[in-house]
Every structure is written in C-alpha cells, then in structure tokens.
Amino acid sequence: MAFPIQRLRRLRRTETLRRLVRETTLHVDDLIYPLFVTHGRGVKQEISSMPGQYRMSVDRLLEEVDEAHSLGVKAVILFGIPDRKDERGSEAYNPEGIVQQAIRSIKKAIPAVAVVTDVCVDEYTSHGHCGILRDGEVDNDLTLEVLGEMALSHAVAGADLVAPSDMMDGRVAHIRRRLDESGLAQVPIMSYAAKYASCFYGPFREAADSAPQFGDRRSYQMDSCNVREALREVELDVEEGADIIMVKPALAYLDVLARIRDRFPLPLAAYNVSGEYSMIMAAGNKGWIDRDRAVWEVLHSIKRAGADLILTYFAKEVASWIHQGKSF
Ligand code: PBG
Fold this sequence. Notes:
about 20% strand, 11 helices, binds ligand PBG, two-stranded antiparallel ribbon, ten-stranded mixed β-sheet, TIM Barrel, about 40% helix
C-alpha cells in the first residue's frame, strides 16, 4: 500500500509532530563529563586544541563539577596531570596523587555526582606509553600489576566506577580480583573494551601531556580496520567481569557500537573523544558549520547506533539544552 496512501511527510510537518515520533532522545542521565585535574590552587588553564576545556586544580574542578551538576550532569570522568612522571608511572597509584585527591574532594563536596576514573598510566609514565616497558616494548603482565594498584587506589579514595583504558589483555579480570580481595566488590568496572589506535586522541594528548615519546600505541590499541576483533574484545571483557563496555572513539566506529549492541546486553558506552570535539569546535568557530546543530546531530547518531552512555566534552551544553527543552 504505497503512495498516495503512504505519505511519510505527514509526520514531519510540524515541530510538535516531529518530536512526538522522535525515535532517539538524549537524556542528561546518559552523559559523562571528562575533566582534567592538575596540581596547584586557582588553576584553570584552557587547553589550546580544545577551546572551552581546561586543566583545573582541585578547587576550580569542584566549581566545574558543581556547575555541571546544577545542569543535571550526574557523572564525571577524571584524568590526572601529575607533577612528576617516571618509568613505572608510580604517581598513578599514589594515595595522595592528584586524581585520588580530586576523588575525595568531589565525593565530600558533591556526593551525588558519580566519579568515574580512567585507569591507565600513560599520563604518568616518562615515556608516555600505557604500560611498563621491558626491552623497549610494553609488557602486558607487568603492566597488570600497576593497573591493579591504580584501580584499587581510586576505589579506596571513593571512586564510584573504574574505567581501564590501557588495552592490556586480562586487565579486567586482574582489576576485579584486586578490588574483590580488598573488600571492594561493589565497585563496578567500565571497560574501554574496543579502544582503537586513533588519531582522534591528538588534542587529549596535548591536554594530558601524554603523547608517547617513541613509537605509537598500535601494539596494544586496536587496528581501526577491524570489527570482529572488537566483538572478541568485548566477549573477553564480559567474561572477565566488566559491568559496562565502551567503544572509543565514537564517530568513526558507529558500526562497531551497533554490532556490539546487537550481541551483548550490557550497558554500552561511547567516548566522543577530544578530536571529535575539536573538529566541531574548529569548524564552528570558522563559521563553516553550525556548531550546536553539529553537536546535536553527532550525539544523537551515537545514541541511535546503540550507546546508552556518552562520554562527551559537550556534556554541560547538551544538559542545558535538554533542560530548556531545546531541539535543533
Ligand atoms: C588513556 C586515554 C586516552 C584517552 C582517554 N584515555 C588517550 C590515549 O589513549 O592516547 C583519549 C580521550 C580523548 O581523546 O578525548 N589514558
């Protein structure tokens, strides 16, 4: 029964009708806001490749978390910029490290906000790799030890969710065991299960000063051409005890999100990474695209592909639009 009986334009005629039949909606509860925390007091330093995003000392970070929370954002993910780095990334698991301090401060001041932590040593190692080196290569099993320590120190400081992003084999099982043995069985793990070796992390590496000093991350992060391998990564992480799985980056990997959504019932997160943010900001600032509409379109595409949660630097803006009932 086709045209003229069927006319799909009927439901597109007015904004109200369009909203009535809208299939995908963003909710403030879906958003996780990434934040960079550094030492000092009163520090709020803009990241040049990520306009509108800052490196903040704990006092300024609290103001930012408070503002985000008042807009309805209920979760943040923390990235630390330590004041010293070494071969092992030992600041990563220092109980007095910058992220551990930030966790305690946020949980004390605004306990309703869920604090997620990134578990990976690249910001803390002098060589910038996501693990411990042995004969010039990142050694998987040696790295598990430090990841376990790091996740444990975050959980002890009060993190609500730990998120390993290193791509070592077996890290979910290892972290789960460390947490459970320490009486922290209630702390969930969000695994960056399908994390690709991507150029879209470029601005983040400037922000966190974490670019590898030699080589690249291709021996541990996934090859961007693969999708079946992503399903294997997810399957293993689920078996090892992951509670939430993540795909990263988001935009060039929407097919990966959709495939995982079809196969696995776990909550699924997508990381709308720094390069995806910076591209929209740059083109928007030049007047080449309508920035707000681009953000709207992109975040809905991630949700439509199957993500339940989105980590995005646009979290505050989107939350304020949702709050105002705005639609683009
Ligand atoms: C690793 C980590 C990275 C990002 C999140 N966790 C960088 C990397 O793997 O090089 C990138 C996030 C972004 O680009 O927004 N600690």
